[in-house]
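So, can you check this record?

>
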Amino acid sequence: MKLGFLLRGIAMTVLLLGASAQAQLRVEVSGVGSNQIPIAVAMFVDEGVLPQQVSAIIRDDLNRSGYFKIIDTSAIIGETTAINFDDWKSKGAQNIVVGSVQKLSDGRLDVRYRLFDTLKAASVSGFSAAAPQSQTRLTAHRIADDIYEKLLGIRGVFSTRIAYVTKAGNEYRLEIADADGEGTQVALRSQEPIISPAWSPDGTKVAYVSFESKKPIVFVQNLITRERTVIANYKGSNSAPAWSPDGSKLALSLSRQGLTQIYTVNADGSNLQRITNTSGIDTEPQFSADGQFIYFLSDRSGGPQIYRMGVNGGDAKRITFGGSYNITPRISPDGKTLAYISRRDGKFQLYALDLENNQEQRLSDTVKDESPSFAPNGKYIMYATESGRRGSLAVVSVDGKVKQKLTVQAGDIREPTWGPFMK
C-alpha cells in the first residue's frame, strides 16, 4: 500500500533548518520493557546503494525502544520473496521485517517494506514510499514507527524530533535533532543563554527564552522560514513559554508588575491576559491536554508545589503533596500523568504522578534532574541530568523499565523538549 502521509511528513521535516551542528548525540540504552517481542529485520534488497542501510536504522530504532528483542540475521530478503516461516520460528523470531530499495529514473528512492507474523504465517503490514535519498533515514524511521504501532498498538515516535540547548565554550546553541540524536541542526547561536524551548503543536515553530539583549525575552521561531517573533519583552523577567494544544496561545511567566505571575498571550504576541494574581510566585505554566486547565508552580503554600487552575484563572487546586519541593510540571498527551522534578534527601529526581489514583513513582536514579518532556505517544519522558559536571539528556519509559542516555562529545546539553507527531 502507498503511505500518502509519509511524503507530506518528509517534505515538512526536510525543510526544517539548514546549518549542521558540530556534534551528534550518542545514545546508550539500558533496561528492557516487559514482554519483549522477538523480531528479525532482514537486510533489504539493494540497500547497499545507500550510505546507511534502511534495515540497520530500523533495527536500531526497535532496539532502542526496549520493547523488542532483535534476532540476529544477515539474510537479504525482499518484500516479494517467499518466507520460510518455520525456519524463522525455529530461530525464535515472532515477526520478520523484509524489504527492498530501488532507484527511480528521477533520482528518488522507492523503499518497500513488509512485516510478517511468523506464527500466523501472515502479513501484518507494509507500504512503499518514494523519496529523495536525503530522506532515507526518515523513511526508515517511519517504517519503524509502523512496526511499533502494529505490534504494540501504540504510535511510534522514531520519526519525531527533539530540541535542546548545548553550551560549548562561550556559545549557546538551540539545536534540533531526530529522536535518535542524528541529523542535528542549529536553529540559533548566541553568546548569551537560551532556555525553555517548547515545540508548537504542529512542529513548525519553537518558543524559547533568549538573553541576547541582556534580559530574558520570549521568542517564537519559525523553523522553516527561520523568522523570529518577539512574544514577550516586558519590564522584568519574561520566561517559561508553553503552547496551548491548538497552538493559538502561549502561557508565560512575567514579572512586569512585581512578583512573577502567569499570563496568556496569542501566538503572535497580542492580547496579553493575566491569569494569576497572588502575593507569591507563580511560574512554569503548562496547558492541560484538553486545553481547559493550566498546571503551574507556586510557593503559595510555603514551598514550591504544583497547582492546577482553569485556563481563564480562578481558584487553584494543589496537585503535588509528596515531598516539600516539586517543580517543572509536564502533562502527558492523554492528560492522565503529571511528570515533575522533586527534591528529596538532597536529590533532584524525575517523578510521575497518576492523576487518576494519585500514585507516585520515581523514574530516575540520577540526582540532578531537570526539564522533563513527554514523547508525543506518552510512553517515554526525556529529561536533562548531570554526569561528571556536564549536562546530558536521558530518556525513560513511563514504567521506569527502559532507560537511554544521550550525550555529546564536548559541552553541556540541557533543556530538552520532545517535538510532536508530524502531520
Observations:
- The helical segments are 4-15, 54-65, 85-90, 136-152.
- The longest helix spans residues 136-152.
- The chain has a mean pLDDT of 91.
- The radius of gyration is 22 Å.
